[in-house]
Amino acid sequence: MEIDAQRRRGKFWDAIEGRAPMPPAAALLGWELVAIDPDQGTIEVAFEAGEQFLNPVGVVQGGFLAAMLDDTLGPALVATLPEDQFAPTLDLHVQFLRPARPGRIVGHGRIVQRGRDVCYLAGELIGPDGKTVAVATATALIQTVRSG
Amino acid sequence: MEIDAQRRRGKFWDAIEGRAPMPPAAALLGWELVAIDPDQGTIEVAFEAGEQFLNPVGVVQGGFLAAMLDDTLGPALVATLPEDQFAPTLDLHVQFLRPARPGRIVGHGRIVQRGRDVCYLAGELIGPDGKTVAVATATALIQTVRSG
After folding, report:
1. Which UniProt keywords apply (chains A, B) (predicted)?
2. Is the pLDDT of residue B1 over 60?
């Protein structure tokens, strides 16, 4: 996780380094940074899938796995952006491989291809038992904040 | 919402009719049934997108919209199943059309095609201002619970 201070700026790094609170959605998911390599465009994060995410059959509702994947793939890109850019997700495709039990879920995200504007992202979630529970791809669009 | 009592059985209807608690994931999303037509395979539900779902730029994190869509499309099918069947989602594709502000979000779900096992589902979410914020398609597989 060797990233020089110049690149550790903006909302993402402010939250990671404690200069700003964690965004509510990330806090709700128990989001935690495990490892990051902005040069490779890869990230490893972890989530805490609590009882509140369970569906009627007692496994994590697929939608919350989708939320975790969104918060895995997005940060792989966002961590590499300068302070005046952000990158909304245009679409997200999730395949649910097997039921996910509650507990610690690890997310691996990566930039598949980075264009000037359009970026293709991919990743997967590993359940508490070490098995892959879901995979996803996403498209994101880099946008620059225009200051008035 | 004219559905005879014989069809109002199983986990889905137990939660709707207060015979069982709402599943945690649905409760967390503020899930509420607005209207349902199992013969048409359509459902209208509503969610309460609270502050806890917001991302760093103050709009609902896309992943939680995905969670809401999963909990819109799934119930369109689940409401039509007999008590001994359930239908896990195999995949979910979400397109994010515009940012969603916090507030009441309405979901419309429908069965596009129902096979003996495989079902194709679609739907969309309408934000507090009446504009469509996200659309989705999903594939679900009907499974029968085998009693030992």
Report:
1. Hydrolase
2. no
B96 phi/psi in degrees, rounded to 5: -95, 110
Structure tokens at B54: 């917001």
Whether residue B81 contacts residue B43, with contact meaning beta carbons closer than 8 Å, is answered with no
pLDDT at B101 over 80: yes
Cross-strand pairs, B46: B32, B106
Q: Which residues 2-31 in chain B show a CB within 8 A of chain A?
A: 11-12, 15, 23-29
What does the pLDDT look like over A70-94, one tens digit per residue?
A: 999 999 999 999 888 989 999 999 9
Domains along chain B? Answer: 5-144 (3.10.129.10)
Q: Minimal Cα–Cα distance from B99 to chain A, Å?
A: 9
Q: Which two three-digit tokens encode residue A16?
A: 């990671």
Burial of A94 (0-12, 13-18, 19+ CB in 10 A): buried
The pLDDT of residue B20: 85
Which residue is closest to B97 within chain A, CA to CA? A90
Tell me the CA distances in angstroms from A27 to A1, B24, B69, B93, one per residue in order.
22, 18, 21, 24
Whether B55 has its CB under 8 Å from any CB of chain A: the answer is: yes
